[in-house]
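task queued by scheduler; priority normal; single chain, no ligands, no partner chains; default sampling; output format set to structure tokens
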Amino acid sequence: MTKDCKFLIHTLKQAAKIIDGSFQVMHKGSGSDLVTSYDFAVEKFITEQIRQNYDGFDIVSEEFNAEKLLTKNCFVIDPIDGTINFANGIPLWGIQAACIKNGKPVAAVIYLPMLDECYYADKSGAYLNDKPIKVLSKPMRNIIGAICDLEKSQLYMKILGEHYGCGRHLCAASISYAYLAAGKVQYFIAKFSKYNPWDYVPGEYICKQAGAYFIFQNGVRFLTSNKQFFEKIKKNIKNM
């Protein structure tokens, strides 16, 4: 395990210990976009640890550094991904972060505190609680996937066709990416803003290191474990 990966794992697990009691829930932007007092506290802790250990690295994060763009050497942080799940007592949420060096991700961690699952990746591969993981390919008729953002359902239906019904809305990108990397689902489709890299940078790196096929085109990010399915959906995305 690389030094960068060890740092992220330790830091995110320590950050999770902050979440130990009652919290405030606030609306951010649209009525369905929530933020809690723990989002701010966790991000502040992670940011402080980075600044103490990585001089000269930029930080791109959801709450305090959302206006920043990715740079050659930076960290990407989502303090609580799946805030709506978190705020409602649903355990499907995570803390995620990635380290970028020379313009490329070199380490990423998704920590799911309520499930005690730590997904991470570095140059050696992808892991869950220190055990190697790989995506799991299934025949197309048996595929199950994850879909992000109900507002884009019509778009995803057009791309996925008959396979749309096999998609599950888990309401947390961290969960969707982690489950794909570990073979629990066979695809993940999303259309994130390029200005919100904390949503996708950590999870995509982990999934790629776990062997997922990936395409980003026309704003759509699609990953899968099945090569035949990948070729089919890639064609649909390109023809949008």
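post-processing summary
- The chain has two domains: 3-132, 140-238.
- The domain at 140-238 is CATH 3.40.190.80 (D-Maltodextrin-Binding Protein; domain 2).
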